[in-house]
Design a protein that fits this description.
This is Helix-turn-helix transcriptional regulator. By secondary structure, the protein is mainly α. The N and C termini lie far apart (about 25 Å).
Length: about 80
């Protein structure tokens, strides 16, 4: 599993998504959200934490655990 780069949620999600050959639109469609909202998740622009069902769906789609997603998400919120 990739842990890397600068350790940001954006880098982590972009890398995982690329490894799966998915676009932002592909991920959004599979999660039942808009591409714009998914883009906000990747960049950390949204104001609240991911809800559990969305984090679970994202983790399953990208082949990681919810804890992996939450680790990188916590880094965003600890700097804001």
């Amino acid at each position: 599993m990739w842990r890397g780069g600068e350790g940001t949620l954006r880098n982590y999600l972009v890398r995982l998504r690329s490894e799966k050959g998915l676009s932002q639109q592909d991920v959004a469609d599979k999660l039942g959200i808009t591409r714009q909202y998914y883009q906000m998740i990747e960049t950390g622009e949204r104001q609240k934490h991911l809800d559990l069902s969305l984090a679970g769906g994202l983790a399953a789609l990208l082949g990681v655990t919810i804890m992996d997603i939450e680790h990188y998400e916590a880094q965003i919120h600890s700097t804001t």
